[in-house]
Amino acid sequence: MSLIAPDDVEALMATGIAPAALQKVIDREEDWLANDPRVGIGQLVGERTQTVWVQILERRDLLIQRPTDEHGGAGSGGSLVVVDNGVELTSDEFALVGPARITHLWAGFPNGPWNGPKVEITYTPTDQVRVEETILELVRLRLSASPYNQEASEGHSYTRPKDLQAMREDLARSLHPHRGPMSTRLGHG
Predict the structure, then answer these.
(1) What is the Cα 91 distance to its own chain's centre?
(2) 103: nearest Cα among 80, 76, 128, 75
(3) Are the beta carbons of 129 and 8 closer than 8 angstroms?
(4) What is the side-by-side order of every strand in the sheet holding 62-63?
(5) Entry pTM
(6) Buried-state track 48-81, b at ≥16 Cβ within 10 A, e below 16
(7) What does the buried/exposed string (b/e) look like for 126-138 if buried means 16 or more CB atoms within 10 Å of the residue's CB?
(8) CA–CA separation, 171 vs 139, rounded Å?
(9) Taking the chain (189 residues) in consecutive chunks of 10 residues, what is each chunk's mean pLDDT?
């Protein structure tokens, strides 16, 4: 099921495309946003379980891929579930310390050790409106993109500041809650 309908796109811009063809463009952009190996955000809506691998007794916050809230994103009826090495933690053993950062509490203090090696976090993202806005922008870019970096006609000229793929990737990255300079911890064999 698509998040965006052709009417949503037509409300923002006159496409001149039949609704069935426009829906195919929308479906392709949603698929790209969900599944691109470099910048994809995974399943666009709904509950998900993310697996994070840690070293045994490691003390660091865990980053989840999408923002959520203390209820796991499903409002007061939802839940944020953290399973550390097969054992479900109680709500006083972990804390959501940002929209996408989970810390293990040890005697009430943050950064307690994770038992690991596998921690599974089940939650529902809270960014659906931003995802829908991004899809609309991706569709707009796709429909208005020219194959040329520069064009001129009747005394007007246009130069595209970036290539289309870079603009699309920037939009997708804007949904990642952990932007900016970061480093990845590499394992050793």
Answers:
(1) 25
(2) 80
(3) no
(4) 62-63, 101-104, 94-98
(5) 0.81
(6) beeebebeeebeebbbbbbbbbebbbbeeebebb
(7) bbeeebbebbbbb
(8) 11
(9) 92 92 96 95 93 93 91 72 95 90 86 92 93 96 74 72 83 83 49
